[in-house]
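Chapter summary example.
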Amino acid sequence: EAHKQLSKTYIDAAIGGDSASASARYTAALREAVLAADILAQDVEAQLAAGNLLLAFGQFEDAAARADKALALSPQNADAHVLRGNAKAGLKQLDQAMTEYENAAAAAPTNGLIHANIGLVHMAQGSKKDAEASFQKAVELSPNSPLARISYANYLLAAKEPGRDEDELKKALATAPEDV
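The structure predicted for these 180 residues follows.
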């Protein structure tokens, strides 16, 4: 529960002000998240929260290390595998990213967004057929997820599928929350 309050504090601290002060607040929030994760070393969620902030700041090695800590505590944690996969993708280690996403899919087989990540790696590796199958699986498992649908629409756009990309983007917009 402590990590939930810390996350709320980070978000509250980062809102408002000019870009220089926002950058300072984000940096402070990152430091606090890492410190909290160090204090709450046995808390998987604290490791994931710190790892995701590190990832957002482009600190991929440190994010992977936090994912490793979370996985040491909970080896089948799909979110930890996704975090590690995202960090490895950021480091351009696509084979390792794919392994982590596949581990995440095995741990959470109904999570369509994991399949969208798998599709992104397939795209980056030039495997169009596998990419399309992964994006289709993402939409099949998470039909109301704007992110799954936008990922698929982006694939269709890159694959030069006129009409299909636009149809999928319209579906994505239809599933998006009103306040986005």
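To summarize the output: Residues 104 and 163 are 32 Å apart (CA to CA).
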